[in-house]
Amino acid sequence: MPFLSIVTRHLTKRVLPFLRCQKSVLSQIDLDYEHIVLPDDVGIGITKANQMLFLNKNVVSGDYIFILDDDKWVTENTFVADMRNLVQEKYPDVIVIKTKIGSEVFPKSPNTVIRGEIDAACVVVKSDLWKSNIHFFMPFMGGDYVFIRNLLRKTKNVCWVDKIYSCSDKARFGAIE
User: Fold this and answer.
1) Backbone angles phi, psi at 146, to 5 degrees
2) What pTM did the predictor assign?
3) What is the number of domains present in the chain?
4) Which residues, in sequence order, are bridge partners of residue 105?
5) Kind of pairing, strands 104-106 and 64-67?
6) Per-residue pLDDT of the chain (177 residues; tens, 9 = 90+)
7) CA atoms of 39 and 41, how far apart (whole Å)
8) Residue 57 maps to which CATH number?
9) How many helices (H) and strands (E) does the chain have?
């Protein structure tokens, strides 16, 4: 069982963003991770893409889970090592990290989760908590914000890290390339 499962929903028409995502994952110096790619060959839309996470939850085997969509990349090649060190030191259920999307950084303020100010790439979650809450990505349940809000309601064992570990250049990579 790997320490970290990195789960990527991938619209196969988005070639260049995915290559950058994949390159960032493969650059990790700590290799105790798995990269699970959930391909979307037809463009099923965000609602069904969210559902892909729930429908594939049994494929994910890491102790901790991180959602890194194909239009985002990991900013540090020490990400897996840093998360492992943090877990060994503090044993958190949820690790909240910073994500830069375009010119904005999320979450915008520490220790608060506000709709529109957080993204799935802002959290690394202990496997059992992730799997018991991933249904919040199902259609009509809410997606990123509702998933994260419910995680934080179910545990107080949260570590907030004031460092940008993931990034998305929406202006350049948001469209299908």
Assistant:
1) -65, -40
2) 0.91
3) 1
4) 100
5) unpaired
6) 999 999 999 988 889 999 999 999 999 999 999 999 999 877 666 667 778 899 999 999 999 999 999 999 999 999 999 999 999 999 999 999 999 998 899 998 877 787 778 899 999 999 999 999 999 887 667 788 889 999 999 999 999 999 999 999 774 444 433
7) 6
8) 3.90.550.10
9) 6, 8
